[in-house]
Amino acid sequence: MNKTIELLANKGQGNIKLDLNYQPGIALLTIDNPKRHNALSGKMMVEFHNAVSELERNVTNDLVALLVMGGGQSSFCAGLDLSFAREHVKSADVSLAMNELMHNTVERISQLPLITMAIVTGGAIGGGSELVTAFDFVCMSQTAFVYFVQTRMGVSSPWGGMRRLVAID
């Protein structure tokens, strides 16, 4: 995992912002890459992984909930930033390592001992749709939608979203 983190750490644009003191007992994580519909670059994947690690370290009786939202108003998360992928994901090994990192990160979100909620405005597409399946609750605006575009592209669901989707009651 450390080699993957080194490989992806400075690749692409956007940020993952974690505010552990958003409100009393509530942390806020923002997926912030609005020019790319909050698609995740390598840099953002590493920041996401690190933010979940920080949440795991800071779980106390005082922290009871995590809210996750997209930066801007148009999208929650468009999954993998395809311009980043075209430029930096040149081999199956890099693709596999990146998907293992995100599968691990998203799975750890689903296991956090916190109440978790995604606040979805606009699209949750591809990896963003997989991310949505990791939360205890999903609050969607009237214009929000979830689209597993990877099925249309003939791609599997490498971040574990399909497995979690069928388990939702």
TrEMBL record:
One of its GO terms (cellular component) is cytosol. Gene3D superfamilies: 2-enoyl-CoA Hydratase, Chain A, domain 1 (3.90.226.10). GO terms for biological process: fatty acid beta-oxidation. It holds the Pfam family ECH_1. InterPro entries: ClpP/crotonase-like_dom_sf, Enoyl-CoA_hydra/iso. Keywords: Lyase. This is Enoyl-CoA hydratase. It comes from Mucor plumbeus.
